[in-house]
From TrEMBL:
This is RelA/SpoT family protein. Belongs to the relA/spoT family. PROSITE patterns: TGS. Residues 498-525 form a coiled coil. One of its GO terms (biological process) is guanosine tetraphosphate metabolic process. Pfam families: ACT_4 (PF13291), HD_4 (PF13328), RelA_AH_RIS (PF19296), RelA_SpoT (PF04607), TGS (PF02824). In eubacteria ppGpp (guanosine 3'-diphosphate 5'-diphosphate) is a mediator of the stringent response that coordinates a variety of cellular activities in response to changes in nutritional abundance. Residues 405-466 form the TGS domain.
Amino acid sequence: MTEEDIEKENAAITKAYKELLKVSYTTLTDDDKKLIRKAFEVALDGHKNQRRKSGEAYIFHPIAVAKIVAQEIGLDATSIAAALLHDVVEDNPDYEIIDIEKKFGKTVATIVDGLTKIASLSKEKDMNVSMQAENFRKMLLTLNDDVRVIIIKIADRLHNMQTMDSMREDKQEKIASETLYIYAPLAHRIGLYNIKTKLEDLGLKYTEPDVYFDILHKIKESKEEQDLYIAEFSEVIRNSLDKESLAYTIKGRPKSIFSIRRKMLKQGVSFDEVYDKFAIRIIYASDPSTEKFLAWKIYSIVTDHFRPNPIRLRDWISSPKSTGYEALHITVMGPKGRWVEVQIRSDRMNEIAEKGYAAHYKYKQGNEKEDNLEDWINKLQEALENPETNAVDFVEQFKLNLYSKEIFVFTPTGELKSLPKGATSLDFAFNIHTEVGMKTRGAKVNGKLAPLNHVLQSGDQVDVLTSETVKPNANWLDYATTARARSKIKSALKEDKKRIAEEGKEILRRKLKQLKINLNEASINELVNFFKLKTSLDLFYRVGIGTIDNNMLKDYASSRSNALMSYIKSKISRKTNIKKEEIEKEEITTNYDSLVFGKEEEKLDYKLSSCCNPIPGDDVFGFLTVSEGIKVHKKNCPNALSLQSNYAYRIMPAKWIDSSQQEFFAQIVITGIDHIGLVNDITKIISENMHVNMKSISFESDGGLFSGKINVVVKNNTLLKKLLDKLKKINGIDKVTRL
């Protein structure tokens, strides 16, 4: 670069820095300006030898991120300083977190440290998990340090998305897919709606450029017509608003390219057939005491002129979204028979909608209840910190919770609870408290008994019924939809399996003693290999539920005297040290022999994809291709993010199942001589049998004889035989048969 070029660049850097101070949403004190100036100087020094792919000086990037943080998100001087410093520690070995703490204090250092941890995640390698999912989970853990870490990371991602043109096409697509997959939903959940919209549009620009530019071109073409329509609509209600002496502004807001595209796909229509491509926003001035009253007054004025769609009223003033968003949304029939969405907000509500977190705190009163965002983060932490949760499962579930629409339901005492749309009675129970969830046996919804998988609607009043004898079972995972509930259920099921395994170990010790075999490390290794299992815990669990019975153990005992088995045994003993660590893993693994799809667990034709070569036992999903039917991919497949981000409607849940751990329905028919207490004897036997779940029971009596049908769920045939044998021994029973 020539001296003239360097001078021009320095002038541009200075201009960008001054612009940053000028556009700040919060009022900067002299101390704030000194802090930002010091951060700018450190960033300038830390990145002095760096350039971006486009060739420009790297310092423009942290300044741009700080500007987004200051202007669009509206955070304070501490956040602006942290945004300027966010890459310094990662990119320059001369700077460490301890240096940042000495210069700027603990808060800035914590935020920069969180951002540095996120940046370094991509450098880690672990082929056994989905790296992206693991990275996202670790990133979300920084929410606990300071929510500003995530907010600055979102700003960083926005600027990266805005300046991706000089990158390779495959890199663009990868970053864009990640953005659509997690960053846009995160921005939505934190209440940064403007940034969410920009991230979605930019994501579409790089994942489906043809579609993006086609819609962009059509929006520009129809802009003049839309402006005229908005003017015509506004004119009709302006006179009425003026008569009420209201201070207001009316703005037309075109729908984002991404949301138009989503609507086209969802409704199967062309661009021209998407009728509500824009919304009209009425923003009014008010003081806190008249804010709600004026919103409904404006609603009344609008609906005096235009007929509203009664099912499209959204009242987020009486019940704000958990992001803090407040507004009235109505859809009315406008001029020329076109539906128009009208959003009614006060200045305060509009600021919260534009700035999210920052504006919410500007208006927050000291005596308010815990903030919704903080409450959400606290609940999220429980799911995040559960090490048992598979990273891919967690991120998938987490993403659903980010973007899901909300419903509002009431407790028996009238307290309002917010849940994601699609939440069930069981989700509600876990939302109240983990202990309530764990003991749930049912619920009353609007006074009527409802099953655990009953999907709740806004306005429902829910009363959870609990019992000390109830505990979670595998079916609960089909009933629960929220990350919190699913995480707790999985932990409980794992604990239950461990308990069964401990009982199984003692049963195995007794049975082997009868066969003159000691239960020790060598015999455990032999048994694990003999039954083709993976861990000792798996062995104990199967003994506990009766899958491995006396006859199978006798087969093992006789094999020990076989010369061939002696040879294998010597091989095993050499591998003992290698196997030891694997055997001691505190997890119960399974053998897999069949692949099923969807919630119904159907067996369908499929092909294994060559890009990731899944094998039985891997976490997988099905992808419905255009010409090759269902192709199965691993959840950590390199193509998974792209498929999940762009073709979510073609994804099918899939899993490998172990036939020995599946649950089966069976119907038992009983006949005999009727007597008092017979039904009680039968139900007592069934309830005392572990791992047998009674689904329904019916009896008929005629002339002193009775017949009955019982539907049960069991894990295997051995358990069912034991149950039938016990039922036959009941006094008065003649026949017990399985249909």
